[in-house]
Structure formats: C-alpha cells, structure tokens
Amino acid sequence: MSQQPRYPSPSLAVEGKVQEFYNRYPYPRPVDDLEEYRRHWQNQQRRRADYHLFWPTRPYREGQSILIAGCGTSQAAKHAVRWPAAQVTGVDISATSVRCTADLKRRYNIHNLQVYQLPIERIKDLGMSFDQIVCTGVLHHLADPDAGLSALRSVLNPDGAMHLMVYAPYGRAGIYMLQEFCRRAGIPATDEGIQELIDALSWLPPGHPLENLLREAPDFRNRAALADALLHPQDRAYSVPQLFDFIEKAELTFGRWVKQAPYSPCCGVLANIPQACRMKHLSLPEQYAAAELFRGTMLRHSMVVYRSDNPDGQLVNFDGVAWLGYVPVRMPDTVCVLERLPPGAVAVLINRTHTYKDLFMPINSTEKCLLDAINGNRCIGDISERMFSSSATNSQHEMVRNFFERLGQHDQIVFDASQRYKIRTGMNEMGQIA
Ligand SMILES: C[S@@+](CC[C@H](N)C(=O)[O-])C[C@H]1O[C@@H](n2cnc3c(N)ncnc32)[C@H](O)[C@@H]1O
Questions:
Q1: Which member of 150, 183, 345, 433 has the lowest number of beta carbons within 10 Å of its beta carbon?
Q2: Could you tell me if 27 and 113 lie in one domain?
Q3: Mean pLDDT value of segment 408-431
C-alpha cells in the first residue's frame, strides 16, 4: 500500500501537493538553448525600456539585485543572461525546476545567478534583500497568497520594484469549468490523466467557454501547459478590485500595468463606447475594473508595484511642467505601419505584444514628425522645440502633451523621467507661454 505523505497543517498539505505537481510537470517546458534570448537582450535600447518601465524616475543602471520568486525552469537563468551586470537569485519549491535552472547555469557559464530550492514563504531565510522582485504565475498557486506576498514585500528594498503576474477570473471561466469537470470526473494529474483529458477535449462542444482558448493559446498545445491550466491542485484568480485589495494588504502600491493599453478608456474599443468619457472621470482602479469587465477575456494581470512607504513613488504624470523633461524611450516590439490606414492617418502604431488587436494608435502628420524625433536621448521639451522653435503656442503645447501621454497609454513608449526640466523664460509653471 502506498503511504500518503502527512503534513502538519492544511497549508503545508497544499504546498506539498503543488511541489509534487511541479516536480512531475515542471513549467514552463524546460529550454536548452538561451542563445537567441541572449541575442534578443543584447540590444541596450530594449534593456533601457525594460528598466524604465519599472523605474521611470531613476537613472538607468544595470547592477541591480534581482529575485525571481518561483523561477520555474528557466526564468531566473534568462534574467541573469538579460542583465549580466546584475546579481540574480532564483528560488523555487520544485526540485525539478531548480535542477533545470542549475543545468542552464552550468551550460551557459552564468556567473551572476544563484538558485535555491526554497518556498517563497521562507524567503527571509536567505538573509538578502532585492532591488527587483519578479513573481509571475506563482502567488495564485499558494495556499496563502497574502502570506507569500508579505514575505516578498519583506525582502524588497525601500526603492525597489516588484513585477507580479496573477491570473484573472473572467477570461479563465472556461478553465475553471474544466478544472471542476476534471475533479468531478476523477481525472488525475498523471500522464494517463492528461491523455484522458486530451481525448475528452477533442469532443468539447462548440461554444464552450474554453473553446477559444484551446484554439488560440499556443501554450495549450503542450502537455505540461495543459496540466498546469486544467489539472492544477491549487489555483485562484484575482479580479481588478481583488488585486488592489491584495497588494494594499501587503503594504504595496500599484505602479502600472506592464501593458496598460487594454485597461485604458483612452485606447482601442473602449475609447469608442458611449461611456468612454464617463469612465475617464472614475478613479484609476475603477477604470481598470470596468475595462476588465467590458473586455471580458483577460487571462492574467501583470503589474509593477512598489512599497507603499516608498517616499518618491515612481509615477510619471502630465500635470505641471515635469513632463517636458521626460525622455521618451520606444518600447521594443512596436511598429509603425504605413499602409491600409484609416482616414486622416499617415501611420498606425502597433505594439506587437498586445493580444487585443483593437489597441492600434492612428497618428497624423504632425504627430508622425514628433514620433520620428524620438531618439532615446531627447526630452519632450527638446522635441517640441525642434518642431515649433522655442515659442510653441499653448495649443501646440497641449497637442504635444496629449500626444506623448497617449503614446505612453498605448504602450508605445516608456519615459526616462530621471532628469529635471529647466523651465524656459516666458513659461509659466504649467510649461505654457505666460
Ligand atoms: C507556473 S510556474 C511559473 C514559473 C515562472 N515564474 C515563469 O513565469 O515562467 C509556477 C512556479 O512556481 C513554483 N512555486 C509554486 N509554489 C511555490 C512556493 N510556495 N514557493 C516557491 N515556488 C513555488 C512552482 O514550482 C513553479 O515552478
């Protein structure tokens, strides 16, 4: 007779089940080649955009300490390759994931990476603290996500930034239905169970809420991903309001979404609905909650958060005059399309990493000139001056402000806001001609 492991508490029992699950089905699928990834991140502009997404108001640097919490098979090794001057620490509860990471470290001679088999809940045992903590796809699998997030918060440096990704409920409705089906039908998380599930899914009736995901999510084509989604022993999701409660309880503050356009009433289909104007008057968390409900198919939320006692914060804003000193940095994977344009547009800007196809941004000829003047060094004030000399009218000034704010909302640029703007003679404190 096989002996069931005994756990002293229900939450340790969950932790044990999750650990067993990932030992058997490590996620993501182990990789054995990091060369393409290394090449991809050799581009300094790409790294700079990534850096300022987390720290718009801090000057660029590369030597940060990074924790990858729940690193899976390759995420910590990838970050160490991406940031060769950083010190990267990976922890994971699964021995298989730690072994895969250690293999990559050996094979690619990655000197700036340490990896430990350790649950997030005991992260303090390392006796370290970090500038950046990346925890994606993990907290929603914990028996007590609040305890996990608080543990991470306790090792985040005061001006540090966290990248969190957790599941979102509405887009995953079909997944939760199938998880419940598997429990009721007694489909186990074993190789036979996965095969049984694949056979059953080939009969899924048209119109089932899982249908689109099966068709569109490339992840679902491999067994580990299918098991991770449908046979997971512990999985919960957070709606936007639940997410804001979650981070506030851990004494963290929301910074931004990693991709913010899908949540904005200024972008895509949401900008066209009759309620768009009213939505813009709601508080930001309420706007995001409404966007999640209207879009209906979000699968996950990926965000940047800070310690709530971080005195400076890392928010960029377009009040006052400071924005004139922001240096726009183009986001990687953005393209400027010049064909098949809507009326009045000379180009359409697309971020290819957006999964929603309605998030494109049409621009006119003046805006195209402003866009072309972005070179990663010029601040908005200088770009505006090149275009309108030093005497932009107040309406030109407003147009420039709106345009760069919209570029940010559409995930076309991030801002390096680390330098102060010197107000020119003749400008008031709003940057307008006095
Ligand atoms: C879905 S995978 C995500 C991996 C990685 N973060 C990524 O985005 O590619 C979840 C990972 O979290 C790990 N994990 C789950 N519970 C954990 C815990 N309490 N402490 C540390 N790691 C945990 C699992 O072993 C697994 O490797």
A1: 183
A2: yes
A3: 79
The CATH number of the domain holding residue 17 is: 3.40.50.150
- Say how far apart CA 152 and CA 121 lie, in whole Å: 8
* Ligand 1 atom 4, closest CA: 72
Residues 124-177 have pLDDT tens digits of 999 999 999 999 999 999 999 999 999 999 999 999 999 999 999 999 999 999
pLDDT at 131: 98
Which residues have any ligand 1 atom within 6 Å of their CB? 15, 18, 22, 27-28, 70-72, 75, 91-94, 97, 119-121, 136-138, 141-142, 228
Examine the pLDDT at 3 and tell me if it is beyond 60: no
267 and 155 part of one domain: yes
Residues in CB range of 51: below 8 A, 6 or more apart: 60, 61, 62
Q: Do 210 and 241 fall within a single domain?
A: no
| Mutation pick for ligand 1 pocket among 15, 17, 19, 22 (CB with most ligand atoms within 8 Å) | 22
Q: Are 183 and 144 contained in the same domain?
A: no
337 & 223 share domain? no
Q: What is the pLDDT of residues 266-308, one digit of tens each?
A: 999 999 999 999 999 999 999 999 999 999 999 999 999 999 9
Number of domains in the chain: 3
Q: Which residues form the domain of 129?
A: 10-169+237-307
159 neighbors 186 (Cβ within 8 angstroms): no
3-state helix/strand/coil string of 223-277: HHHHHHHHCCCCCCCCCHHHHHHHHHHCCEEEEEECCCHHHCCCCHHHHHCCCHH
Q: Is the pLDDT of residue 421 over 90?
A: no
How far apart are alpha carbons 36 and 137 in whole angstroms?
A: 23
Output the CA 92–ligand 1 centroid distance in Å. Answer: 6
How far, in Å, is the centroid of ligand 1 from the Cα of 7? 20
Q: Does one domain contain both 163 and 62? A: yes
The average pLDDT across 61-75 equals: 97
Residue 75 shares a structural domain with residue 139:
yes
